[in-house]
Amino acid sequence: MIVFANAKINLGLRIIRKRSDNYHDILSVFYPIPLVDVIEIDQSKKLEFYSYGLSITAPSESNLCVKAWNLLFENHVLTPVAIYLLKNIPTEAGLGGGSSDASFILKALNEMFHLGLSHETLSNYALQLGSDCPFFIHNKPMLVSGCGEVFTPVTLSLEGLYLVLIQPNCKIHTAEAYSHIQPRHPAENPALIVNLPLERWREKLVNDFEDFVFEIFPEVGIIKEKLYDEGAVYASMSGSGSSVYGIFRDEPPPMPWANKYFYRVFILD
């Protein structure tokens, strides 16, 4: 079985408050994008995991793909599989690649072994793997709240618009980024802002991580401004970084300056 696990971008990301359990309540709109990891799952005599493409630093046993199989194996009758992951989504980029891989593994195993698990049950399993993971079970625009585990559908389509995605050569650890963020309450709900004309997003749709990331990695902020210079209607960092995206109404011009980075152009679905 072959599945294509897509990435996401954050449309706005507000940190509402720090909770007593040291997690943070957030508000953000997640939107799926057509950058995909390719996962092949085959029957095997033992559980095996192989990765290709972009490098993955974590050992195989701690990879979310392996954890997803182990989670279902603990609760259902599964036989061993070999998992082959072609990694196209950069890690530590704010794109949810690892979470997507895990969730698509859960969905694939559910189909492969005829488990008959509902979306709700798969979402509950996905949440055990990471707060972002349930989003990829549903895989449609969602308002994310709580500490990233509460999902509410959002009516939003960016179909036909162009997305330029750039990741500079720096890695940002999510936990470190959160440790430097001061909650901002009240914060305007991104789900309300994305209903406004796209041209108004620049003044209103905010990612609270940008100030911290741009200070320690000025190059990330420079990329955002260059995307506006190239004609983006809206540009932002995704998640806690370090990837930056620009949304264009018309086909964007070539950007030779971006060739030294991870640089992709997509038409949004």
Structure description:
- By secondary structure, the protein is α+β, with helices and mostly antiparallel strands.
- The chain has 9 helices and 10 strands.
- The chain has helices at residues 64-75, 97-112, 119-129, 133-138, 174-179, 190-193, 201-204, 210-216, 218-229, and strands at 2-18, 24-43, 48-53, 81-87, 142-145, 150-153, 162-167, 234-237, 244-248, 262-267.
- The strands form 2 sheets. Strands 1, 2, 3, 4, 5 and 6 form a 6-stranded mixed beta sheet that branches. The chain has a 4-stranded antiparallel beta sheet with strand order 8-9-7-10, with helices on one face.
- It is globular, with a radius of gyration of 18 Å.
Task: Please give the structural blueprint.
Layout: E1 2-18, E2 24-43, E3 48-53, H1 64-75, E4 81-87, H2 97-112, H3 119-129, H4 133-138, E5 142-145, E6 150-153, E7 162-167, H5 174-179, H6 190-193, H7 201-204, H8 210-216, H9 218-229, E8 234-237, E9 244-248, E10 262-267
Descriptive keywords:
10 strands, 269 residues, Ribosomal Protein S5, domain 2, 9 helices, 6-stranded mixed beta sheet, Alpha-Beta Plaits, 2 domains, 29% strand, 4-stranded antiparallel beta sheet, single chain, alpha+beta
